[in-house]
Amino acid sequence: MITTLTPLFESKSIFHEVNERKANKGFRCIYCGMDEVVHFGKTTQDRQRYKCKCCDKTFTETADTPLYHCRKSEKWIDFLSCLIDGMSLRDSAKEISVHYVTLFYWRHKILTALAQINAEELNGIVEVDETYFLESQKGAIPTHRSSRKRGGSAKKRGLSTEQICVLIARDREKNTFYKVIGRGKPTKDSLELHLGNRLGTDIVLCSDALRGYKLLAKNHHIQQYVKTGEKRVKGIYHIQNINSYHSRLKRWLNRFYGISTKYLEGYIALFNYLDQLRFDDSERSIKELAVDVLMNKVSDTNNDIRLRQVEYV
């Protein structure tokens, strides 16, 4: 049974930390992007209001966060605890007395925020490998195939365009880059596009024998160790850490009984964040999650989330 966590933190202290971090980065107007922003009183809910001197518009500290227009924001911290504990939406709804449909949108706004937290640069020994998920259009009518019953299975054996490729790269400091890049095996162009500018200097790339990785290493003049056949380890150069990460990710995703491909990257972002926390549900971890979520811009409405389409770059 979850005891109410909000009094332990007081949302004021969370927003105080968020506002301090934003101020250190250079607090900017959400409308015009200028940094001529001043305090402009409080709302009836005791939220800080701001005013931009350039465009003369006002906004609150919850603007462009998952809490914007949230009617039961006092329950939001409790929901983060449920999220870390892996509770279903219906169980969470019973626990904190908020309808599960509302929690669905809360969850996806949180996922949208966390998906913006991704490794900018990988250094040292970098392991890279792709993993695959069967394409899912859960909740929609498939446009290019017949519907599967309860998830079903692929019609073709092995890798095909029915499988969605997720590229994951991770260094030994546990900095992790993840990206849903499309159907089937990744091409050299997609690897260069998504991973090329994230490789630091003096790195060692550990991968399997996919040709695209060899070309990536050659183009960036970096050393590469390749896993071939049964030879999995060469001293400290291997891809066992990334394979273990894939296994943990897939086990964790099983609890959702199938995820629509359009939401997949958000769930990977959530797993990656919780994996870094070691799924610790202490007060400190929940507050850290709350602050990190509120630091990222989320302007999606409920309709934006519901009508989201899969986009591959």
Structure description:
The chain has helices spanning about 5-10, 10-25, 75-85, 90-95, 100-115, 190-195, 210-220, 240-255, 260-275, 285-295, 300-305, and strands at about 35-40, 50, 60, 125-135, 165-170, 175-185, 205, 225, 235, 235-240. It folds into 2 domains: about 5-115 and about 280-305, no CATH class; about 125-260, Nucleotidyltransferase, domain 5 (2-Layer Sandwich), CATH 3.30.420. The radius of gyration is 22 Å and the shape is globular. It is of the alpha+beta class and about 325 residues long. A 5-stranded mixed sheet has the order 6-5-4-7-8, with helices on both faces. The longest helix is centred in the last third of the chain and has 16 residues, at about 260-275. The protein has 11 helices and 10 strands. The model is unreliable at about 1-10 (pLDDT under 50). Helix 5 (about 100-115) crosses helix 9 (about 260-275) and helix 6 packs across helix 7 (about 210-220). This is Transposase. It holds the Pfam family DDE_Tnp_IS1595. InterPro entries: Tnp_ISXO2-like, Transposase_27_IS1.
